[in-house]
Specification:
Elements (H helix, E strand, L loop, with lengths): L11 H7 L8 H18 L3 H24 L1 H6 L4 E3 L17 E5 L4 E5 L2
Antiparallel strand pairs: 1-2, 2-3
Helix pairs in contact: 2-3
Amino acid sequence: MQESHQPRKVTAISAIGYGMGDLYGGGQGALVATYLALFWNRFCGMDIGLTRIVDDASLTVEKLHASLTALSPQSTLDRGYAVVQNADGHVIDDAGKVSAGDHLTLTLRKGVITATAQ
């Protein structure tokens, strides 16, 4: 004998309350999140509170991704900076550590340049 699964009901008040982030600057993301919460609640039996926890975790992951992207060496190169390394591969952060004739590698956003210090 199979148990019948009764979907949970979502009241207009809880749906509107969940979507209020849209009025406070949540934008389309809050609206989409509201519809996803309603979908999960109606068809998958996921509680709105649990859906909010999942949404909050997703937002945290997105913020961490943005932070990591901003701090990545590639983002620095994309802004026009270069990474200068000596022949041993060590990053040069002081011009006083470079002597005439040292072989240098300059890594740019697109490509690598080899040079000799003068």
